[in-house]
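User: We ran a pulldown and think these components assemble together. Before we commit to crystallization trials, I'd like a predicted model of the whole complex to look at. Sequences follow.
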Amino acid sequence: MKRVVITGIGIYSCIGIHKEEVREGLYYGRCGIGIDPARTAYGYRSPLTGIVPRPDLKEALTRRQRICLPEEGEYAYMATREALQDAGIDLDYLDKNETGILYGNDSSSKAVIESHEICVDKKDTALLGSGAIFQSMNSTVTMNLSTIYRLHGINMTISAACASGSHSIGLGAMFIRLGLQDMIVCGGAQETNVLSMASFDGLNAFSLRVDQPQKASRPFDKGRDGLVPSGGAATLILEEYEHAVKRGARIYAEVAGYGFSSNGVHISQPSEEGSAKAMARALADACLKPSDIDYINAHATSTILGDAYEAMAIDKIFGEEKTPVTSTKGMTGHECWMAGASEVVYTLLMMRDSFIAPNLNLEEPDENSKKLNIIAKTIDRKLDTCLSNSFGFGGTNSALILRKI
Amino acid sequence: MNRKEIIEIVNRFLAEDIEVDPEALKEEAFLKEDLGIDSLDFVDIVVVVEQNFGFKIKPEEMSKVKTLSQFYDYIEAKLNAS
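Assistant: Here's a predicted model for the assembly, 487 residues in total across the polymer chains.
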């Protein structure tokens, strides 16, 4: 089996629009959450959301490229541009070397809903314009980026709810391990427009701590009352180890383990068993013991049930080790389809700069989370091997282990 | 609406919405070969024509339109017929 390393990262999020800004946000515990008044006007229970600025791509992309990109595609372009540059990859390289793309995304609501509204009004599909179909499909990010960057390898979108980004990295690693690809663009993207989260808001899953937006997302805290949706995009360049060494690439870490599972029980409720199974499988895949893990980036989204089940699962496997744990969602909110990828980027930045970002707003742990070693304030700590959890609706679970080499 | 006004409107949306080089907007220019307008751009031209002139282009009618001058003629004829 080949070894897989990460040689480039890019991030566009509510705590920063490039990796160094995000690194500062993580280190200093900056929260990117605010109020979107349009959500209240639309009928949301909660107007809380990660505030992500829209990039101006007029100079960077042609009209044809821009017109096919939905909001999350714009974020994915920004993150991918940064990641490729970080990896030292340009268009000339991509023309001469087969490169794939496996990217997480699980909705593109705005283009779908706006197309419907035009048809209701005009009664003619000819007036939808040429970009609507390319913006509407779940695979919008991979179809756009593969065209913009002239990619010639594996090309598909991974839709696995809030574990989409994490599975994209795990599956990318599998393709490279098997020797099928030398380099794959992996990641996750998430839209934040007012049309994108209405049905999720309708589940009563979002925090209503409207008077204190920056205290609303409080993973593992006893006073948590729901998640705060957020978005953006994160990109990672996965590469076969010898290939990376040969071209002199800087290596962030090895994708040492990928664990997956499906709860097979409830469509929205998580499970201790399923979460633990994914973590245990990742450890086995990496040939590591729980004591080898220096830090766990938890999925914990700030919901009552989800955080409790994950705390139980982490305690089950890492209880004796008291491994440091944080959920970065206190700062970022829940970046949903993007989260599994962005949280690997956050973890890699922590590994690079030797710190653990805080679990923001942890004031009082509950009966489950008090069993964990949750880091409430930033600490400087050398990190060699880390685990990142991602779980999603439908009971899909993914755990990734990153190891410095 | 006279032909001069039609030309102004068409040239404006071709430059602003379709991002055709304004320097290339000559009457004898071929839409595909000279202005680089492809099949997907024609889909967007249907939308901007409806927004600017209030009628819907039929794809079978557009297939006969090859040059910018013929495009002005087509719009002028449609407006005069309505």
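Chain B touches chain A at residues 18-19, 40-41, 43-44, 46-47, 50, 56-57, 59 (CB under 8 Å). That may be worth checking against your pulldown data before setting up trials.

User: Thanks, that helps.
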